[in-house]
Design a protein that fits this description.
By secondary structure, this protein is of the alpha/beta class. Helices cover 24% and strands 24% of the residues. The chain has two domains: 48-184, 3-Layer(aba) Sandwich (Rossmann fold), CATH 3.40.50; 185-229, Dihydroorotate dehydrogenase B (pyrk subunit), domain 3, CATH 2.10.240. The strands form four sheets. Strands 8-7-4-3-9-10-13 form a seven-stranded mixed sheet, with helices on both faces. α4 (137-146) packs parallel to α6 (164-177). The two termini are 28 Å apart. 33% of the residues are buried.
Amino acid sequence: MRANANEGWLEFLYKPVGPGLAHLAKRSIGDRVSMLGPIGRGFKPDPQRSTVLAIGGGVGIPPIYFLAEKLKDRSDNSLLVLMGSEVPFPFKLGESSSSLDGIPSDVSAHVADLEAWRIASRLASNAGYTGCYQGYVTDLARSWLAALPAERLEDVQIVSCGPMPMLAAAATLAEDYGLPCQVAVEEYMACGVGGCAGCTILARTSAGPTMKRVCVDGPVFKAQDIFPL
């Protein structure tokens, strides 16, 4: 979720599902763990489009948080972060007093860290959390895009990470508005280095359909190369 190469630290956000993560959750500050990384391909925002709409859902939220922090000091980018979750958001939240085009006035909950970085954010959930958009985060994104004039739409790109149905919805959103879209795909990764081919997904290439390994060929792909599967 965060990294600082100069200070030499990494920060992860994970949910202890299954024996492996349950074992990791028992580690304490100061314990040593064996790690391999970084591997694969990350987000590469298009420098020709300065407005980045970042959509994160569920366990896809940490990579979007990571990207937002990396982009926060770039003067050539503006960034809107929309996050959706059906469980409580694992961050300190706040309530924004500013308005955003196409975003209902009662949708005011934001991530405090992002606000401190001068990055606009809004939250969505079907769980009824106060200040959140009541519905899917991609529907909230559509509402924002629908309010933009044509000249602003030409400057927008989408990046997204989350469950496959959410990524498919983000891809549809990008197609409807003619926007480039990158998606970070979730898959079970056994070896993590491309050897076992256990994380392959079907993708389009100029030579026709083929199988791509999420761990090394991805996890970030162009949305139109993956959806519809």
